Amino acid sequence: MTRNYQICTECIMDTSDPSITFDEKGVCHHCSDFNKYVKPNWHPDSNGRKELEKIVEKIKIDGRKRDFDCLLGMSGGMDSSYMLHMAVNEWGLKPLVFHVDAGWNSELAVKNIECMVEKLKVDLYTEVINWEEIKDFQLAFFKSGIRELDIPQDHAFIAMVDKFAEKYKIKYILNGGNFSTECVMPPREWLYYGTDIKFIKDIHGKFGTIPLKTYPFVSVLKHKLYLKYLKGIQNIKPLNYVPYIKKDVVRILADNYDWREYPQKHFESRFTKFFEGYWLPEKFGIDMRRIQLSSLILTGQISRNEALSIVEKPAYNPEKIAEEFEYIAKKLNISVDELRSYFNAPNKTFRDYKNSEWFFVLGARIMKAAGLERAVRR
User: Of 256, 251, 250, 234, nearest to 90 (Cα)?
Assistant: First the structure.
């Protein structure tokens, strides 16, 4: 049964999210979840700053005899760039700054990273993922027909953070995740869990052509439980403790580091730009700008009308999309016709492959009940 179109009266989330629900006033569950789970636990004020000062002091004490007292993954995006600025200039920390090169860096991302590390005088550690392996992995996901094409890249980032923390015995990971620009979470029907090893290995097993001998994998149990509760590695989101307003942050980074803003969140990766800007909305009807802009609406950084005017236009440049297809196809060593054939193939979902959805849902519910996670991902 086809559902009648409806859009939230407060944010711009709509029935492109198949699990969305609305109350009698037309307000969606994303908005009510924000008011119920986020607002009561989010304090980007003097209280938050005091709490952050305690955390920073503990990091300094624990790392006083070490070269590095914390770990910071650097993508060149706004969140990681501002966090590096704050960590060094405001909090006086000694971060081990590392970057994972999965082969899709934009020129702008490379420049933004370079200007940040040079002006802050920090060393940058770069881990390059085996291109032949990740290329094969990426192609397997295209062939599978599912929407989660970014998993091969994202999973490598997650795994390498954990690897660096273990390797250098660093107890604190600074995570750029924040409520201010990310309080609306992607529905599970939009993007499935990127740490479901059963799922991602089933896809590569069916469509991959070479063994992934060096590609870094990490299980959700290791990522969520082993490292935190047995190894004592803490994942800290310091941007939740301070005011974090997008327009102010862009200005600070531009003025201090000649940092340049991207057209859209996550567009520091050429692949993600193509994937979120074109592939998702045109093939699957999913516009990631809806969660990004809805987050800014809920945190008072943009008006609903302004957000609506933004999503009226495509996230990609129609005059340049043919060039984007050529770039992606050439990088993957396939023809443009082959790439377009994947676009025109029947759509599949994660449920068409082996997966551990039940385990993730159960785990999220347990974590929420224990107060360790703010909400069950829908």
Answer: 256
Where helices occur in the chain by DSSP H, the ranges are 29-33, 46-62, 78-85, 107-120, 131-144, 151-167, 179-182, 197-207, 220-221, 246-257, 270-274, 289-298, 304-311, 321-331, 336-344, 357-369
pLDDT at 26 over 50: yes
Q: What is the mean pLDDT of residues 299-312?
A: 98
Burial bucket for residue 170 (CB in 10 Å: 0-12, 13-18, 19+):
buried
CATH topology for 29-369? Rossmann fold (3.40.50)
pLDDT in tens, 221-272: 888 888 888 888 999 999 999 999 999 999 999 999 999 999 888 889 999 9
- CA neighbor of 96 nearest in space, from 154, 161, 153: 161
Q: How far apart are CA 34 and CA 110, in angstroms?
A: 34
pTM for the full model? Answer: 0.93
Q: Are 238 and 83 contacting, i.e. CB atoms less than 8 angstroms apart?
A: yes
Residue-wise pLDDT for 314-334, tens only, equals: 999 999 999 999 999 999 999
**d(C-alpha 112, C-alpha 74), whole Å:** 10
Q: Residue 22 to residues 297, 303, 308: CA-CA distances in angstroms?
A: 17, 20, 19
Contact indicator for 216, 159 with CB cutoff of 8 Å: yes
Tokens of 352: 């068409």
Q: What is the DSSP letter of 269?
A: B
Closest CA to 328 of 264, 255, 242, 270: 270
Residue 314 near residue 281 (C-beta atoms within 8 A):
yes
Alpha-carbon span 104 to 191, nearest angstrom:
20
- Averaged pLDDT, 295-317: 97
Nearest to residue 206, comparing CAs of 249, 257, 142, 154?
A: 142
Residue 161 DSSP one-character state: H
Q: What is the pLDDT of residue 370?
A: 61
Phi first, then psi, for residue 325 (nearest 5°) are: -60, -45
DSSP 8-state code for residue 276: I
Question: At residue 173, what are phi and psi to the nearest 5 degrees?
Answer: -105, 125
Q: Which of 67, 363, 355 is nearest to 221 (CA)?
A: 363
Domain locations along the chain: 29-369
Q: Is residue 371 very low, low, confident or very high in pLDDT (cuts 50, 70, 90)? A: low
